[in-house]
Design brief:
The protein has a six-stranded mixed beta sheet with strand order 4-5-6-7-9-8, covered by helices on one side. Strands 3-2-1-12-13 form a five-stranded mixed beta sheet, with no helix packed on it. The chain is of the alpha/beta class and about 270 residues long. It has a single domain, classed as Purple Acid Phosphatase, chain A, domain 2. The two termini are about 15 Å apart. α1 runs parallel beside α2 and α4 packs parallel to α5. The protein is globular. Bound molecules: fe (ii) ion. Fe (ii) ion (FE2) binds next to loops.
Length: about 270
Protein backbone atom coordinates (compact mmCIF):
# COMPACT_ATOMS: atom_id res chain seq x y z
CA UNK A 1 0.00 0.00 0.00
CA UNK A 2 1.23 3.45 -0.88
CA UNK A 3 0.38 6.41 1.38
CA UNK A 4 1.27 10.08 1.18
CA UNK A 5 2.04 11.99 4.37
CA UNK A 6 1.78 15.78 4.13
CA UNK A 7 1.99 18.12 7.08
CA UNK A 8 1.93 21.75 8.21
CA UNK A 9 0.38 23.64 5.30
CA UNK A 10 -0.22 26.84 7.36
CA UNK A 11 -2.58 28.37 4.81
CA UNK A 12 -3.52 32.04 5.18
CA UNK A 13 -6.45 33.79 3.43
CA UNK A 14 -6.19 34.31 -0.32
CA UNK A 15 -3.94 37.26 -1.11
CA UNK A 16 -2.19 37.23 2.29
CA UNK A 17 1.40 36.07 2.85
CA UNK A 18 3.18 34.19 5.63
CA UNK A 19 6.83 35.15 6.31
CA UNK A 20 6.76 36.72 2.83
CA UNK A 21 5.67 33.58 0.96
CA UNK A 22 2.32 32.22 -0.20
CA UNK A 23 1.55 28.91 1.58
CA UNK A 24 -1.27 28.08 -0.87
CA UNK A 25 1.17 28.32 -3.77
CA UNK A 26 3.52 25.85 -2.04
CA UNK A 27 0.58 23.49 -1.54
CA UNK A 28 -0.50 23.83 -5.18
CA UNK A 29 3.01 22.90 -6.34
CA UNK A 30 3.02 19.94 -3.95
CA UNK A 31 -0.32 18.73 -5.31
CA UNK A 32 0.96 19.09 -8.87
CA UNK A 33 3.93 16.88 -8.02
CA UNK A 34 1.73 14.31 -6.28
CA UNK A 35 -0.67 14.19 -9.23
CA UNK A 36 2.27 13.73 -11.59
CA UNK A 37 4.22 11.09 -9.67
CA UNK A 38 2.02 9.56 -6.97
CA UNK A 39 -1.57 9.55 -8.16
CA UNK A 40 -1.60 5.79 -7.48
CA UNK A 41 -1.42 6.32 -3.68
CA UNK A 42 -4.35 4.95 -1.71
CA UNK A 43 -4.64 7.95 0.58
CA UNK A 44 -2.98 11.26 1.41
CA UNK A 45 -2.99 12.16 5.10
CA UNK A 46 -2.33 15.75 6.20
CA UNK A 47 -1.21 15.80 9.84
CA UNK A 48 -2.44 19.23 10.88
CA UNK A 49 -1.66 22.92 10.90
CA UNK A 50 -3.86 23.08 7.83
CA UNK A 51 -4.12 26.82 8.39
CA UNK A 52 -1.93 29.32 10.23
CA UNK A 53 -4.68 30.97 12.28
CA UNK A 54 -7.67 28.63 12.12
CA UNK A 55 -9.84 31.16 10.25
CA UNK A 56 -12.70 30.26 7.94
CA UNK A 57 -11.24 32.07 4.90
CA UNK A 58 -8.09 29.93 5.07
CA UNK A 59 -10.13 26.71 5.32
CA UNK A 60 -12.20 27.84 2.33
CA UNK A 61 -9.00 28.41 0.38
CA UNK A 62 -7.78 24.96 1.43
CA UNK A 63 -11.00 23.39 0.12
CA UNK A 64 -10.48 25.14 -3.19
CA UNK A 65 -6.80 24.15 -3.45
CA UNK A 66 -7.59 20.51 -2.62
CA UNK A 67 -10.01 20.23 -5.52
CA UNK A 68 -7.00 19.63 -7.77
CA UNK A 69 -5.75 16.64 -5.75
CA UNK A 70 -6.24 13.28 -7.49
CA UNK A 71 -5.56 11.19 -4.36
CA UNK A 72 -8.25 10.82 -1.64
CA UNK A 73 -7.33 12.98 1.32
CA UNK A 74 -7.80 12.85 5.12
CA UNK A 75 -7.30 16.03 7.16
CA UNK A 76 -6.10 16.15 10.78
CA UNK A 77 -5.91 19.16 13.09
CA UNK A 78 -2.83 20.89 14.53
CA UNK A 79 -2.31 23.53 17.19
CA UNK A 80 -2.76 26.34 14.61
CA UNK A 81 -6.20 25.02 13.66
CA UNK A 82 -9.66 25.60 15.12
CA UNK A 83 -11.81 22.47 15.45
CA UNK A 84 -15.10 24.32 15.19
CA UNK A 85 -14.11 26.45 12.21
CA UNK A 86 -12.57 23.46 10.43
CA UNK A 87 -15.79 21.48 10.83
CA UNK A 88 -17.81 24.42 9.52
CA UNK A 89 -15.68 24.44 6.36
CA UNK A 90 -15.44 20.62 6.09
CA UNK A 91 -18.74 19.40 7.60
CA UNK A 92 -18.37 15.88 6.20
CA UNK A 93 -15.09 15.07 7.98
CA UNK A 94 -15.45 12.11 10.36
CA UNK A 95 -15.31 12.68 14.13
CA UNK A 96 -15.43 10.44 17.18
CA UNK A 97 -18.50 10.36 19.44
CA UNK A 98 -17.20 13.31 21.48
CA UNK A 99 -16.67 15.51 18.44
CA UNK A 100 -12.88 15.20 18.18
CA UNK A 101 -11.58 14.85 14.62
CA UNK A 102 -10.56 11.23 15.10
CA UNK A 103 -11.37 8.36 12.73
CA UNK A 104 -10.07 5.18 11.17
CA UNK A 105 -9.48 3.92 7.65
CA UNK A 106 -9.27 0.18 6.97
CA UNK A 107 -6.68 -0.95 4.42
CA UNK A 108 -5.30 -4.22 3.06
CA UNK A 109 -2.31 -3.97 5.45
CA UNK A 110 -4.12 -2.91 8.60
CA UNK A 111 -5.84 0.00 10.15
CA UNK A 112 -4.94 3.69 9.84
CA UNK A 113 -5.93 5.60 12.97
CA UNK A 114 -6.20 9.38 12.82
CA UNK A 115 -5.81 11.29 16.10
CA UNK A 116 -6.83 14.76 17.21
CA UNK A 117 -4.16 16.15 19.59
CA UNK A 118 -5.34 19.77 19.40
CA UNK A 119 -5.76 21.70 22.67
CA UNK A 120 -7.64 24.80 21.48
CA UNK A 121 -5.66 28.02 21.84
CA UNK A 122 -2.52 26.34 23.16
CA UNK A 123 0.53 25.00 21.37
CA UNK A 124 1.05 21.68 23.10
CA UNK A 125 -0.77 18.46 22.29
CA UNK A 126 -2.88 16.13 24.39
CA UNK A 127 -4.96 13.00 24.10
CA UNK A 128 -7.26 13.71 27.03
CA UNK A 129 -11.03 14.07 27.51
CA UNK A 130 -11.66 10.57 26.17
CA UNK A 131 -9.35 10.73 23.16
CA UNK A 132 -6.82 8.21 24.50
CA UNK A 133 -9.67 5.90 25.54
CA UNK A 134 -11.06 6.11 21.99
CA UNK A 135 -7.62 5.19 20.61
CA UNK A 136 -7.31 2.22 22.97
CA UNK A 137 -10.76 0.97 21.97
CA UNK A 138 -9.69 1.07 18.31
CA UNK A 139 -6.44 -0.77 19.08
CA UNK A 140 -8.04 -3.47 21.19
CA UNK A 141 -11.17 -4.15 19.13
CA UNK A 142 -8.95 -5.70 16.43
CA UNK A 143 -5.82 -6.73 18.35
CA UNK A 144 -4.42 -8.77 15.47
CA UNK A 145 -4.71 -5.92 12.95
CA UNK A 146 -1.53 -3.85 12.51
CA UNK A 147 -2.24 -0.20 13.30
CA UNK A 148 -0.61 2.95 11.93
CA UNK A 149 -1.17 6.15 13.89
CA UNK A 150 -1.32 9.68 12.50
CA UNK A 151 -1.17 12.74 14.77
CA UNK A 152 -0.11 16.37 14.59
CA UNK A 153 2.04 16.47 17.72
CA UNK A 154 4.87 14.03 18.32
CA UNK A 155 3.61 11.49 20.85
CA UNK A 156 7.00 11.46 22.62
CA UNK A 157 9.70 14.20 22.69
CA UNK A 158 12.07 14.37 19.72
CA UNK A 159 15.19 15.67 21.47
CA UNK A 160 15.05 19.31 20.32
CA UNK A 161 14.86 21.90 23.16
CA UNK A 162 12.72 24.25 21.02
CA UNK A 163 9.81 21.79 21.16
CA UNK A 164 9.99 20.85 24.86
CA UNK A 165 7.35 23.44 25.80
CA UNK A 166 4.87 21.85 23.37
CA UNK A 167 5.37 18.22 24.33
CA UNK A 168 2.22 16.16 24.25
CA UNK A 169 0.85 16.59 27.77
CA UNK A 170 0.27 12.96 28.73
CA UNK A 171 2.90 11.41 26.49
CA UNK A 172 4.19 8.84 29.00
CA UNK A 173 0.68 7.53 29.53
CA UNK A 174 0.00 7.49 25.77
CA UNK A 175 3.21 5.63 24.94
CA UNK A 176 2.67 3.10 27.75
CA UNK A 177 -0.80 2.42 26.38
CA UNK A 178 0.39 2.12 22.77
CA UNK A 179 3.25 -0.20 23.67
CA UNK A 180 0.86 -2.25 25.80
CA UNK A 181 -1.61 -2.64 22.93
CA UNK A 182 1.17 -4.31 20.93
CA UNK A 183 -0.17 -3.71 17.40
CA UNK A 184 1.08 -0.21 16.48
CA UNK A 185 3.65 -0.49 13.67
CA UNK A 186 4.39 3.18 13.00
CA UNK A 187 3.44 6.72 14.05
CA UNK A 188 3.39 9.54 11.49
CA UNK A 189 3.34 13.09 12.87
CA UNK A 190 3.84 16.78 12.03
CA UNK A 191 4.23 19.95 14.11
CA UNK A 192 8.02 20.07 14.28
CA UNK A 193 8.85 21.40 10.78
CA UNK A 194 12.01 19.27 10.74
CA UNK A 195 12.74 15.86 9.27
CA UNK A 196 12.99 13.35 12.09
CA UNK A 197 12.50 9.64 12.60
CA UNK A 198 13.52 6.81 14.89
CA UNK A 199 11.79 4.87 17.62
CA UNK A 200 9.87 5.93 20.72
CA UNK A 201 9.68 3.25 23.39
CA UNK A 202 10.35 0.77 20.58
CA UNK A 203 7.65 2.18 18.23
CA UNK A 204 8.94 3.54 14.90
CA UNK A 205 7.93 7.08 13.97
CA UNK A 206 8.58 9.67 11.26
CA UNK A 207 7.89 13.33 10.56
CA UNK A 208 8.50 15.42 7.48
CA UNK A 209 9.63 19.05 7.60
CA UNK A 210 6.39 19.87 5.81
CA UNK A 211 4.93 21.94 3.02
CA UNK A 212 5.17 25.49 4.46
CA UNK A 213 8.20 26.99 6.26
CA UNK A 214 10.80 24.78 7.90
CA UNK A 215 12.97 24.96 11.01
CA UNK A 216 16.72 24.40 11.19
CA UNK A 217 17.04 21.76 13.92
CA UNK A 218 19.27 22.83 16.79
CA UNK A 219 20.16 20.46 19.60
CA UNK A 220 21.00 23.07 22.26
CA UNK A 221 19.00 26.23 21.50
CA UNK A 222 15.47 26.98 22.67
CA UNK A 223 14.80 29.52 19.93
CA UNK A 224 14.56 28.47 16.29
CA UNK A 225 15.51 29.68 12.82
CA UNK A 226 12.58 29.50 10.40
CA UNK A 227 13.58 29.04 6.76
CA UNK A 228 11.91 28.63 3.39
CA UNK A 229 13.26 25.40 1.89
CA UNK A 230 11.48 23.45 -0.82
CA UNK A 231 8.12 21.94 0.23
CA UNK A 232 8.61 18.35 1.40
CA UNK A 233 6.43 15.31 1.89
CA UNK A 234 6.80 11.61 2.68
CA UNK A 235 5.64 8.51 0.87
CA UNK A 236 5.10 5.37 2.95
CA UNK A 237 5.18 1.97 1.29
CA UNK A 238 3.62 -0.57 3.62
CA UNK A 239 3.29 -4.32 3.32
CA UNK A 240 3.27 -7.26 5.74
CA UNK A 241 7.06 -7.18 6.13
CA UNK A 242 7.96 -3.50 6.04
CA UNK A 243 7.06 0.14 6.51
CA UNK A 244 9.31 2.21 4.24
CA UNK A 245 9.29 6.01 4.43
CA UNK A 246 10.69 7.92 1.45
CA UNK A 247 11.19 11.67 1.56
CA UNK A 248 10.46 13.92 -1.42
CA UNK A 249 11.13 17.57 -2.11
CA UNK A 250 9.16 19.69 -4.54
CA UNK A 251 12.03 21.37 -6.36
CA UNK A 252 13.22 21.79 -9.93
CA UNK A 253 16.42 19.78 -9.81
CA UNK A 254 18.30 19.43 -13.04
CA UNK A 255 18.72 15.77 -14.05
CA UNK A 256 22.37 15.21 -15.04
CA UNK A 257 21.86 11.97 -16.88
CA UNK A 258 19.28 9.21 -17.11
CA UNK A 259 21.06 6.04 -16.10
CA UNK A 260 20.42 3.02 -18.33
CA UNK A 261 18.30 0.29 -16.79
CA UNK A 262 16.37 -2.78 -17.83
CA UNK A 263 12.69 -3.39 -17.23
CA UNK A 264 11.47 -3.77 -13.63
CA UNK A 265 11.10 -7.51 -12.90
CA UNK A 266 7.47 -8.63 -12.82
CA UNK A 267 7.51 -9.63 -9.12
CA UNK A 268 8.40 -6.11 -7.92
CA UNK A 269 6.08 -4.17 -10.21
FE1 LIG B 1 3.14 23.86 12.11
Amino acid sequence: MKLIHLTDLHLVPAGAMLFGFDPAERMRKTIERINRDHADAELCVVTGDLTDEGDFASYELLREVLQEMRVPIRLLLGNHDSRQTFLRAFPGEPCDRKGFVQSIHETSVGRLIFLDTLVEGLGHGALNEGRLEWLLERLTERPQAPAYLFAHHPLQPIGLPHFEQWNTENWRQIMRAIVGAGNVRHVFHGHVHVDVGGTWSGIPFSASRGVAHQIIPHLARRDADFVEDAPAFDIALIDDDSVLVHRFEVNDRHVLEVSAAGPIPKDVQ
